[in-house]
Amino acid sequence: MILSFVKHNVCIYMHGFHCRFHSTLTSYKMGRFQVYFILFLVASMTMIQLSTAGGEGSVPVEECPSACSVRCSATHHPGNCMDVCQDCCGKCLCVPSGTVGNKDECPCYRDMKTKYGTPKCP
């Protein structure tokens, strides 16, 4: 077995006049590429999850009552609030976080109006 170095190539073994080359630089670059690619995938999946968190379609219909109980926890009219909130949640599949405000998290919820043009969803 004969080892010889030619630039970034390492001759692994020599058989007759043929030398098998293995590029250490190429392996290093491929390893870095794979690490960066995996980091990119993880970052992409995280961004997708964050972008849909709290957005339309983020609350399954069966979770509307619990989401609305949080939303209506500070109101003086909890029964009415729960009824309207669950109706809005059933249509939009979204309930804004907190007890008031934050309606920009759910444009469908924010834009629903009563027949008088006032906001429908609490």
TrEMBL record:
Pfam families per UniProt: GASA
Family statement: Belongs to the GASA family.
Protein name, entry field: Gibberellin regulated protein
